[in-house]
Specification:
Radius of gyration: 14 Å
Shape: globular
Low-confidence stretches: none
Mean pLDDT: 92
Largest sheet: 5 strands, antiparallel
Number of strands: 7
Strand content: 25-35%
Structural class: mainly beta
Length: 95
């Protein structure tokens, strides 16, 4: 059971750790507001990201993502989930 959830969820042991995760690349922190500076993209589930769009850092990209270790996961308003973004695609300043 995780804080904020209404119920428990199943987790594989390989996805859990007793140690906190390593720091996020670029010095980013979960919950930090960022701006997307890359090219527009639409995902198969309908989620989009566009230049100048504000999002919120949600954590590390998945370990099988090309952006793992080189970026962070970001949730953009209206999106169904987080998307992996390379550090060079993000800015802390509004464009």
């Amino acid at each position: 059971m995780f804080p904020g959830n209404k119920g428990w969820i199943d987790c594989y042991l390989t996805r859990l750790s007793r140690s906190p995760p390593p720091p996020l690349p670029g010095g980013y922190a979960v919950g930090e507001k960022v701006y997307f500076t890359g090219n527009s993209q639409t995902y198969p589930n309908g989620d989009t990201r566009t230049p100048g769009q504000e999002g919120e850092v949600t954590g590390h990209p998945s370990s099988d993502s090309p952006a793992f270790g080189k970026g962070v996961a970001v949730k953009f308003p209206g999106s169904k989930g987080s998307v992996d973004c390379y550090l060079f695609e993000l800015s802390r300043s509004k464009p």
